[in-house]
Design a protein that fits this description.
The chain has about 850 residues and is α+β, with helices and mostly antiparallel strands. It is about 20% helix and about 35% strand. The chain has ten helices and 46 strands. The strands form ten sheets. It has a seven-stranded antiparallel β-sheet with strand order 33-34-35-36-31-38-39, with no helix packed on it. A six-stranded antiparallel β-sheet has the order 40-43-44-45-42-46, with helices on one face. A five-stranded antiparallel β-sheet has the order 14-15-16-17-41, with no helix packed on it. A hairpin with an 8-residue loop joins strand 22 and strand 23. Helix 6 crosses helix 8 and helix 6 runs antiparallel to helix 9.
Length: about 850
């Protein structure tokens, strides 16, 4: 990366930003991509924003300088369908034209609110994203992307998996824009016409995209200026007004398009796209920036300079409500520069000058809140801008008077709104009478993800209104709700704060929700024998009147699939329950990993397979130094059947089969048509899957995953009357390899349990002898010093030792079962080995 910026000055600008939050307005529940910032009008210094919501309402509003009141520009009537996408036109003369998608219809509205265009598409699924450039319209649904020219269907593309986000950019040709799609099957795809041009694999399910148009423009201007300087030495080396500091890095990519992507796993990365290949840039991993608990990326904006260093910063919105700002250091690498939280999922991120004439971040949340964050909350300090000034007495008095007036106005507005709410409730009660509401007005945003750090699953539920309670029912007895142990984001508080247990059927514990440390929930459990043998039945009661988000952590065991049902009850009428259903798959602790083969795939018309590609041996399938067992399944089944089996056993597998040739065949027959790699987040073992019609292969350096695969396929094949045959080729080194991997986990868990026991004794002695530390050894002093860390770690891992023991026993049984040996009579030897640890 080229860099002419001075390092000391750059480090000074990397101080953490503070933000001043302003709540602009409240809409109904909002979908992703339903907010835009209108360009500045002539003679104006502040932007207006356009919003869409689930009620089908499109509205525009603005704020005047020095005033807190919002001025409405226009507001449409309630529509029959929710607004799923809202964008501004990108063609010449369309910069202030608003295009919205609801259902299968695209409408155009000018900045005054007058409708000038309406087009009903032929899509059979609702439009989730719309883009307009001149007479061309790109309408994207859940799986398809259609292009219309002059309202005539021109091109159609069907994705293998769900399309989470889409953008348009001139990737292949400068004069023609291409759809760029973020797909859940871990690919960013570029479409040319009706065909896939190429796809770039990313390390996670792609969830958000952003095209850095301003950075691309600056790079091209810099390239052209450098060209002019070469031809004419008297020419300037850069456009007028541009300094070396204000030029973006990566000048060698001036002919490419910079695209940022985000994933559901929380990563954000940089890609440079052109008609030849994909070049990869930086990747933001929250773990490298020590940001614990970061959610998935739901929105990205990189067109605004918030730190005042002349470079556009990257702003990332996440589904846990956090908004992160990243600036670039002297090497062109992103560094965290600020972080704030909205308290709920961020649906759209933009930048503009709405509340003030200065740059600010604008966010539209799931419940419909529209908030702005202006950097430099403390106007008396530099805060990275170097322009803070102390206020004199008159200015301070004026500010206090303005703040008091604002508080009084807010109180009056609150009283008025409360009165309106009471009237509306009375009207609703008189109309409903004895009738019971059958459907609620909104949906619940739910996410069920595997946390690779703790090897647990997190179920996050978010509603647009306050939640009264959440009832969770788990069909599998091998799924543990970890609120009992106080693990994860819902932590058991101290003994002084815990609620007293009432009886065995209502064991209550106070836990803390991840979105707010002040909100608590009371857990009521029901024993499995009272609910027909179900694994778990619990009710979480939320006493807070404004909690809209709740997270539950659970530990799932592989080989015990089940169904998780969560019923969310709102706090206010109508009291209609929303049910969320999630499936726990047999190999639930395996996550998809990226391999070198998946880096960039060109379509068959643009890339040919190298004839010299080496065949992969089964023993070296995971690379040098790693061994693998092989399970081969043959029979009368199609490639679609084999792919469906894999999708039902493992997460992160596309819903549709995409035939991409694989080189895993070593028997001279035709190649496999699909292949995926997975990793067990607890043990670090690998699993590779490859299949075609009539044959499927499974490689693993552990015996239990292959045993579960054999059990599942055998059961499904018996139900569908498909004859299958299994062949197992084991490696004698696998047990040693497995023991080396799980032994450190067991040792660490035992050591942590011993530390917790020791800490309890030391704390009891300390209460009786205050001067105890003067007599303790350095080892015991260190345990007391790390009291909070030991307690938190022990609570997070309580019950894990029994879980690891079960994993070892499963491996012992499965390994010998593949060898045709029954070892149930020898299980006592395994128990004795654990007693000797």
């Amino acid at each position: 990366r080229a860099s002419g910026r001075r390092a000391p000055a750059r480090r000074a600008a990397m101080s953490m930003l503070t933000f001043d939050r302003t709540d602009i307005t409240q809409t109904a529940q909002a979908e992703r991509g339903t907010m835009e910032v209108l360009p500045l009008s002539k003679g104006k210094r502040q932007n207006k924003i356009v919003l869409g919501d689930a009620d089908g309402v499109v509205q525009a509003l603005g704020m005047r300088k020095g005033e807190d009141t919002r001025s409405s520009v226009f507001r449409s009537a309630t529509g029959p369908d929710p607004i799923a996408s809202l964008t501004l036109g990108s063609g010449k003369g369309q910069e202030d034209k608003i295009f919205v998608a609801s259902g299968a219809t695209v409408r155009g509205v000018n900045k005054k609110g007058k409708e000038f265009f309406k087009f009903s598409t032929n899509l059979t699924e609702p439009i989730r994203d719309v883009r307009v450039d001149g007479d061309r319209i790109w309408a994207t649904g859940e799986y398809v992307s259609n292009q219309y020219v002059d309202c005539v269907d021109a091109h159609f593309f069907a994705s293998n998996d769900v399309i989470a986000d889409s953008r348009i950019a001139p990737v292949v040709l400068d004069a023609e824009k291409n759809p760029v799609l973020a797909c859940r099957d871990r690919f960013v795809r570029v479409v040319q016409g009706s065909d896939l041009y190429y796809e770039a694999a990313v390390a996670g399910a792609a969830s958000a995209l952003h095209v850095c148009e301003r950075n691309d423009s600056l790079r091209r201007e810099h390239r052209d200026a450098a060209t002019r300087e070469t031809v004419d030495p008297r020419a300037h080396s850069r456009p007028h007004g541009e300094t070396r500091r204000s030029l973006p890095p990566d000048f060698e990519h001036a002919s490419r398009r910079e695209v940022l992507f985000g994933t559901e796993q929380g990563l954000c990365g940089q890609l440079f796209l052109d008609g030849e290949r994909v070049a990869r840039g930086w990747v933001i991993d929250t773990r490298s920036h020590r940001l614990a608990g970061s959610g998935g990326v739901s929105a990205i904006d990189a067109e605004c300079d918030l730190t005042g260093d002349g470079l556009n910063d990257v702003v990332i919105g996440r589904d846990d409500g956090s908004i992160e700002t990243y600036a670039f250091d002297e090497n062109g690498d992103p560094q965290i520069a600020g972080r704030v939280s909205c308290g709920e999922a961020v649906q759209t991120l933009k930048h503009g000058r709405v509340t003030t004439p200065f740059p600010e971040i604008l966010a539209h949340t799931f419940s419909g809140k529209v908030v702005s964050f202006k950097p430099g909350a403390d106007s008396t300090s530099a805060d990275g801008f170097g322009m803070g000034e102390a206020l004199d007495d008159a200015q301070a008095a004026a500010r206090r008077f303005a703040d008091k007036k604002r508080v009084d106005d807010v109180k009056l507005e609150t009283d008025r709104l409360e009165a309106e709410v009471q009237v509306a409730r009375a009207k609703y009660a008189s109309l409903s009478g004895d009738l019971i509401a059958a459907d609620g007005p909104s949906r619940v945003l739910d996410r069920f993800r595997l946390d690779p750090e703790t090897a647990t699953h997190r179920l996050t539920l978010e509603a647009p209104a306050a939640i009264e309670s959440v009832a969770v029912h788990v069909s599998s007895q091998q799924v543990d709700l970890l609120d009992e142990y106080g693990a994860g984001a819902a932590n058991v508080r101290g003994a002084d704060d815990a609620s007293t247990s009432v009886d065995a059927s209502d064991s209550r514990k106070t836990i803390r929700d991840s979105s707010s440390a002040a909100t608590t929930a009371i857990v009521s459990r029901t024993p499995p024998e009272l609910v027909g043998g179900a694994g778990a039945l619990a009710v979480y009661r939320l006493p807070s009147e404004n909690q809209t988000r709740f997270e539950i952590e659970m530990r799932c065991q592989e080989g015990a699939p089940g169904t998780i049902r969560a019923c969310v009850l709102p706090l206010r009428p109508p009291k209609t329950v929303t049910e969320v259903v999630r499936e726990v798959k047999p190999l639930c602790l395996h996550r998809r990993v990226l391999t070198g083969d998946e880096d960039t795939h060109m379509s068959s018309s643009h890339r040919q397979k190298d004839k010299g590609e080496p065949e992969t041996e089964s023993r070296g399938v995971f690379g040098a130094g790693r061994v693998a067992d092989l399970l081969t399944v043959t029979g009368d089944f199609s490639a679609e059947d084999a792919h469906q089996w894999v999708a039902e056993m493992l997460d992160d597998v596309p819903n549709k089969l995409a035939e991409t040739s694989s080189s895993f065949d070593d028997d001279g027959d035709s190649s496999y048509v699909f292949s995926y790699d997975f990793e067990n987040v607890l043990l670090g073992t690998r699993l590779r899957v490859a299949g075609r019609a009539g044959a499927a292969r499974f490689w693993s350096d552990g015996a239990t995953p292959l045993a579960l695969v054999k059990e599942f396929i055998g059961r499904v094949a018996a139900k569908t009357n498909v004859r299958v045959r299994f062949a197992f080729d084991g490696d004698e080194r696998i047990p040693v390899f497995f023991a080396r991997r799980i032994d450190p986990l067991i040792q660490n868990t035992i050591a942590l349990a011993k530390q917790e026991t020791l800490l309890e004794g030391l704390l009891e002695l300390k209460m009786q002898e205050p001067e105890l530390e003067g007599f303790l050894s350095p080892e015991f002093k260190a345990v007391l010093a790390e009291e909070k860390t030991v307690v938190a770690s022990a609570r997070a891992r309580r019950g894990r030792l029994a879980y690891l023991v079960g994993v070892v026993k499963d491996f012992f049984v499965d390994w010998h079962k593949f060898r045709g040996e029954n070892v149930k009579s020898a299980m006592h030897e395994v128990d004795r080995a654990f007693q000797e640890y």
